[in-house]
Amino acid sequence: MSKSLAGKVALVTGGSRGIGAAIAKRLAAEGADVAFSYAKSSEHASVVAHYIESLGVQALALVADQSDASAVAAMVNRVHAHFGRLDILVNSAGVFVTGVIGDPQADIAELDRQQAVNVGGVVAAVRAAVPLLADAGRIVSIGTMFASRAPFPGIADYAASKAAVAAYSRGWARDLGGRHITVNTVQPGPINTQMNPETSDVAAMVKQMTALGRYGQPEEVAGAVAFLVGPDAAYITGATLNVDGGQNS
């Protein structure tokens, strides 16, 4: 690795597993000290933290309820207090809840919590981070290709929550341009994680929906994030990058 992030401090929300864990590990491999949040999985968090430290950089794992704006803000402030700076914020924490509109069996409470996590949690993290971020800092939020295309019923709430994040990112890019802080969104397609394994019953159908005919790996999303938070992406802001194997092509 080039160690292009040496001396930087990154915060990755939802960094104990899946895409978030891959991002946390990749940023550490690029030389950054990495803090990450998690909700329940302390064992997974410990594994990620040990891996980060094995690379010769610092790790900080924090429990935070992403649906609680005050808890998110407290987490961001704690990261800054611990490391003395904050250069990179990656909003990776999110939940996926389905429900067809008008379905009396839909779990409205969980759909509302999804909005609180996927939208409210991102907004809270960015609001807390902006006064602390170094000039020329980086903000990247993980969205979904469903924000641009809804290929099956029941995903309207999830898609809307991620589309809102992409819209916020474009607006924030304008707000923060004067400080040279870039704000971008990465929209994954089907990625091989515990929640969406490439060995599932629907995997064959999902693969056919992509131009490349396969699932992506978390490390491929992490590579896109590493580029956007690195020095070569200093002139990219307000952008949405699809990492979806051509599913949206």
Automatic annotation (TrEMBL):
An example Gene Ontology molecular-function term: oxidoreductase activity, acting on the CH-OH group of donors, NAD or NADP as acceptor
Pfam families: adh_short_C2
Residue span, Ketoreductase domain: 8-194
InterPro entries: KR_dom, NAD(P)-bd_dom_sf, SDR_fam
Superkingdom of origin organism: Bacteria
Family as reported in the entry's similarity comment: Belongs to the short-chain dehydrogenases/reductases (SDR) family.
Stated name of the protein: 3-oxoacyl-[acyl-carrier protein] reductase
